[in-house]
Amino acid sequence: MNWSPLFLSLQVATFAMVVSLVLGTAFALLLSWQRLPLPDLFQALVSTPLVLPPTVLGYYLLTILGPHSLIGRGFHWLFGGDLIFTMKAAVIAASIGSIPLVVGAVKVGLDAVEPNLVAAARTLGASPARVLVTITLPLAAPGIVAGAMLGFARALGDYGMTQMVASSRFDGFGIHNESPASIFVHDELVALRDESARNMAIATTILGIVLLVLANHLTRRVRRG
Amino acid sequence: MAELVADLAITRGEYTLAVTLRCPPGITCIMGPSGAGKSTILNLLAGLLVPDRGSVVLDGEVWFDRAKQIDVPVHHRRLAYVFQGLGLFPHMTALRNVAYGMRDVPRADRHAKARVLLVRLGVGALADRKPSTFSGGEAQRVALARALACSPKLVLLDEPFSALDRELRKQLTTLVRELAGELAVPVIHVTHSLAEARLLADRVVQLEHGTIVSEGGPDLLTTSD
Asked: How many domains does chain A fold into?
């Protein structure tokens, strides 16, 4: 069996998890900020990837990241290549899909932090940044861990957006011109290679279940401290 | 003499609080029925709530003045606040809880000093344990140690002994009395308990519906019987 598609998916999902966790935590913190203007609009914007068709999101990403866009030209000027149809584009696409799930999980974690503890830290002389790092984030850790795992699992299975902005095949680390697992299954089915499609589908399913079990275990451990 | 002078007014919906406090060093007990505004006063003094008008001056240092638009952030007001629920950080050991607010102590010395304070308050054995393992009395003592550790100019105690049995309450009131004498700063102690106030108070302020109805020395409590 060719394991490269699965490894490529794992690479994309790992990077996407990091990106979506950083951005998702920042968005969740903003949503928890009581003085945020137009919180409902902000929440709606963050959740948009859940409701828009992947093709629509893919279209936006192609427009924003394409070679004629500001970001595309900036990227070309800095690194001398295109952003779209690369693993970086796949990571961005997978991250966009993961962010709403990460924001939701992290927000639950943040909401569970007792306001009294934050107030206590402030009265003990902690600056807002120190309160965030030493009190809020550690106490929201179960939500953050759950968010990371959900983000990873979602990124592992991204299909539509990835295909639009990164194409069916791209290079990974040590992997040349390969499809990620989700696209690989589709391509193998279309090519009537049923066994190969089935094996990859089973491998991806097992990996997803193992990850979710691990996520639950880790979340419980973090919650217990 | 480090005197607290506070003129506080706040309206929230139907509720209005308007009080003027003069608290010299020593223990001022604020008494009154639920909803009288006792905890609101503490939150206004701490900067956790912003008064609609008035001022807070401690030892000549202006912490808040609506007219002059001065509002010193909570973490720059040098105070210790023991909340009703104590607010011990559940993810930190007793030692780290106590060391958290030590602003002027070099980082390397903080744990040693925190240990000395815990021993002083009779809970040295808890140093490496987390709050979930403390009894009610132990948690109180750790919270008091943490409050003392930040060398406060003002101490706010919000019914800290309300959940304790009579014997333990008596022990801790004696301890607070002793510590207040050493600190020589204003200590504002909110309580429902007449017995507790009799043991502690140098001054008594009685509050009803957001206004002060009587204030004076502890002899005021004898006439309350």
From this structure: 1
| 0.90 exceeded by pTM | no
Report the CATH number at residue B185. 3.40.50.300
- Tell whether A114 is within 8 A of chain B (Cβ): yes
Mean pLDDT of B65-91: 92
Dihedral of CA atoms B200, B201, B204, B207 in degrees, nearest 10, equals -20
Predicted local confidence at residue B225, as pLDDT: 47
Predicted local confidence at residue A225, as pLDDT:
60
Q: Do A225 and B91 touch (CB under 8 A)?
A: yes
Residue length of chain A: 225
Q: B72, B76, B88, B89: which to substitute to probe chain A, counting the most A Cβ within 10 Å?
A: B89
How many domains does chain B contain in total? 2
- The domain spanning residue A36 has which CATH number? 1.10.3720.10
Q: Would you say residue B83 lies in a domain?
A: no
Closest CB to B83 among A116, A127, A128: A116
B137 with B158, same domain: the answer is no
- Residues A28, B223: Cα–Cα separation, whole Å: 54
For testing contact with chain A, the best of B58, B77, B91 (most A CBs within 10 A): B91
Q: Would you give the DSSP letter of residue B83? A: B
